[in-house]
Amino acid sequence: MGTSPWAVKASSLYDRAYARQYRSHDDEFERSEPCRRFADWLRQVCRSFAPPIDALDLGCGTGRYFWALEGVRELVGIDASPAMLAEARNPYNASRITARAVTLVEGDLFGHQFEPARFDLVYSIGVLAEHVPFDSEVVEHVSRWLKPTGRLAFTTVHPDSPSIPRTFKRRLGESIAAIAPRPVERRVRHRLLSGGMYADEARIEQLLAGAFAIESLRRFESEAHQHCWCVARRSAP
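Above: the chain sequence. Below: its structure as tokens.
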């Protein structure tokens, strides 16, 4: 299977200099309220399981949130950037990581194949519908990798985020989508979501329908974006 353009982009863009700069920001974690809230959120998701669990960090970067997990037997982090993974070998709060084993995988989340039903939890912060598309392919992969009734916890960038330029075309598209017939509205919304690079509540519900039961879905404001953050349980086969 070929490498996706998103993996190629990540591997080239997130080079050694970028990774070092990104890792230096991790050490300022306590100054960021959104980062602290993301960590608390992950901790609560872990506590919804009976330990021990196996977890996958989808687009782990420098391993910023490894330490926040609880009750984990094996933690796997996958990322397309070798430079980011090099930093993840010495992540933030390394002394507080409680996972019994940590495995780092250089790979393309659209092409890598984990064994079916390997993980209890797949989580992804600041990756889906931000750096790579959140689409049916991602949902299919994660559903296959999760154990029955396992959970997917993730964030997206909401299309109403103030970080997205309010261009004339975007405002016009929003106006058309509000009054257009359903087929036209769907096409316009797809454009507004930039092919999966943003995702709102309706899009998340649409993509997860059938494969997952949503347990929580709400908005959250960080320094950079307005996000959706979601926890969904895999529907039993």
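The chain has eight helices and seven strands.
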